[in-house]
Amino acid sequence: LELYPVCPVCGSKTVRDEGEARVRCSGGLFCSAQRKEALKYFAGRRMMDIEGLGDKLIEQLVDADLVHSPADLYRLNLAALLGLERMAEKSANNVLAAIEKSKATTLARFIFALGIRNVGEATARDLAQHFASLDALLAATPEALQAVPDVGPIVAQSLLDFLAEPHNRSVIADLCAAGVVWPAMAAKSSDGVLSGKTLVLTGTLPSLSRDEAKAMIEAAGGKVSGSVSKKTDFVVAGEAAGSKLQKAEDLGVAVLSEAALLELLGNQS
After folding, report:
1. Is residue 235 within 8 Å of residue 253, measured between CB atoms?
2. Tell me: the pLDDT tens digits for 93-105?
3. Which of 60, 93, 184, 246 lies 20 to 30 angstroms, CA to CA, from 154?
């Protein structure tokens, strides 16, 4: 791609990242040269979680010219699948059911599934929490993107490059039109009691599940990290807390019980 200002396969703009010698296509979801890998990524367990849509089936669908973008997955029918090699009716119905089930997702998963360069699972979650809606993310300026925790110039530019391609915008619109939906979200609190704070959960809490505690912390403006560091503000420790608790004590990080966490959250206005 070094000699091409646009991708010779799909026509999308090529970009060169700082410190890299080669340019790459920004077409992402649209580019046929990247299509199979993009679809495998999209269907992954932590992305859209389409059970049964494995690598071999995706390759068959692309080779048979049945799927050009992730949105085409939601247009597949029984007849199309049965036309594939070694596809029984029961297996085909199971795949269609899994595709239908995947329509109900979260905004964070949806963003992650798009396969935007430099946007991993944690960043996708931060973007979803910060903007709360897809429309707000699509309209975000470079400054607005960099207001998201842990989003710097490189990640912001990757997002802007991806969204600058009409092909990618079209795929996003097609996915929404196909019925991919997620629960409405409230924008992440900027003035909550835990605004700007990083917490780590460890051990088994008496009454809250890990997901419940995480949701409460994030609703109060905090961020939940998986590891303890000098930047950690609080460690919430439950029964059988292990090395994370020990590291918190070694670093002098404040340790909260579930009761102390609930008391802290209860003080927010």
Report:
1. yes
2. 999 999 999 999 9
3. 184
